[in-house]
Write a structure and sequence with these properties.
Length: 189
């Protein structure tokens, strides 16, 4: 049950689902490769859309993309891709669906090079979450030099839909960056 009288970041008040995501996931450090891939896939599909749109379809994405099993996704056939493009439960953007396969393949390549995707991605913040101290939502940036650098490196490695804004949102979602505003109950929890 969501406690609605808590002070939260202003972006999450439009639905119980949004508040639950804020309270239980957003900004919590993630080190598990499967969960990191889930957020990478969801964030790439979110590009140009609202996050609540993706949250509302998250279970559909889970089912459509084999529980975010990047090893399976990396092997998707054209038939499977066509099936996904017909699935009204997800975002049926052809370029994004194809990028999910490409990104899964590149994700595995990074694992082979670094031992895990977690080792690779967390090295950008010296394996320690960056604690920003925004007083309000206006002080939370959409991009930073760090998200620019991660985006550039991922693109160099062949990833798609990983622009700086997407990567900043990914860092926030996976707890690499703590952008809870100063009066939010999750700020220091």
């Amino acid at each position: 049950m969501i406690i609605t009288d808590k002070i939260r970041c202003g972006w999450c008040h439009s639905s119980d689902l949004y508040m639950k995501y804020h309270d239980e996931e957003w900004g919590v450090p993630v080190y598990d490769d499967t969960t990191l891939f889930e957020f990478l896939l969801l964030e790439t599909f979110q590009a140009g859309l609202s996050w609540i749109t993706i949250l509302n379809k998250r279970e559909n994405f889970y089912n459509a993309f084999d529980a975010f099993d990047y090893k399976k996704i990396a092997q998707y056939s054209d038939d499977k891709i066509q099936e996904l493009l017909q699935d009204a439960g997800i975002i049926r953007n052809k370029l994004k669906v194809y990028s999910a396969v490409t990104n899964a393949q590149n994700f595995i390549t990074i694992q082979e090079e670094f031992g895990s995707f977690s080792q690779y991605i967390w090295a950008f913040v010296n394996h320690t979450p960056v604690n920003n101290s925004p007083r309000n939502l206006k002080e939370v940036p959409a991009t930073t030099p760090l998200s620019d650098a991660i985006s550039k490196d991922l693109k160099k490695r062949g990833f798609k839909f990983v622009g700086s804004t997407v990567m900043y949102a990914f860092m926030q979602a996976t707890g690499m960056i703590n952008d809870h505003v100063e009066n939010c109950w999750k700020r220091n929890s």
